Amino acid sequence: MRDFDLIVIGSGPAGEKGAVQAAYFGKRVALIEAQPRLGGACVNTGTLPSKTLRETALYLSGLDQRGLYGVDYRIDVTVDRFMFRKERVVQSQLELIGNNVDRHGVELIQGRAEMLDANTVRVQGPGGGTQSLTADYILVATGSYPFRPGSIPFDDHSLYDSDTVLGLDKIPGSMTIVGAGVIGCEYACIFAALGVEVKLVDGRDRILPFVDGEIGDSLTRQMKKLSITN
Fold it and tell me: How far apart are CA 55 and CA 225, in angstroms?
C-alpha cells in the first residue's frame, strides 16, 4: 500500500485546489511546498501583489481623482506606504489557504521534491534531511519564476526582477523596464502612476502582440498619458 492516494508538488492555485478537491472526496493527500509560505507565485510575488500594488498606486497618486475633479492631492509615497496594503492582502490570502488545507486534512510537507519514478517522490526538508513518499498519482504544479539571463548581473543592487522588485527599499526616481510583456507593462504603469520616470524597452514592433489589437492600442495610449517612453 502506498503512503498517499495523491501527492501534489506546489501549493499555488492549481496545487492547492487539486489537493483540497481530492481530499474532499476522501483521498489521502500530501501537499509538498519548497517555499516557507503557501500560495506560490500567484499569492506571494505575482498576480495578487501586482494587482494590489496597482490599486495602491492609483489611490496614493490620486490619479483617478485628478481626472474626475481636476485637483491634485498627491502625497509623499514611501515604500512602507506603498507595500502596506499589499502585505495585508497577501497575509489574508495565506491564512485562507492554510485554513483550507488544514480543514480538509491535507498533509503539508515542507521541502523540495524530486521525482524518483512515476509513483515515488523524494523530499529534502529545510534542515537537509530527506524522506521518500509514494502515491498512486502525482500532480506537478510547480508554477514559474522570472527568467534570469546569465549576461545580466543580478547581484547589482540596482537590478531587480519581477519577484525582487517587491523588496525595494525606496521609490526610485527613474526606472528602465526590459520586456513589454504583461508583467513589464503592469509594473511600468504602477511606477509611472507614482511619479517615477519610466522607460519601457522591448525589441518587438508593438507591446503585448498576443492580445487583441484594440486592447494593445488602448494600453499604448494609456502609457503615453502616464509619460511612459517606449
Answer: 17
Q: Are 93 and 48 in contact (CB under 8 A)?
A: yes
Among 80, 46, 81, 75, which residue's Cα sits nearest to residue 63? Answer: 75
Q: Position of cell 480543514? A: 103
Closest CA to 179 of 201, 163, 152: 201
- For 130-178, what is each residue's pLDDT tens digit? 999 999 999 999 988 888 888 888 888 899 998 888 888 888 899 999 9
Burial class of residue 3, CB neighbours in 10 A (0-12, 13-18, 19+)? middle
Q: Contact 32/160 with Cβ under 8 angstroms?
A: no
3-state secondary structure 25-90: CCCCEEEEECCCCCCHHHHHCCHHHHHHHHHHHHHHHCHHHHHHHCCCCCCCCCHHHHHHHHHHHH
Single-letter amino acid code for the residue at 137: Y
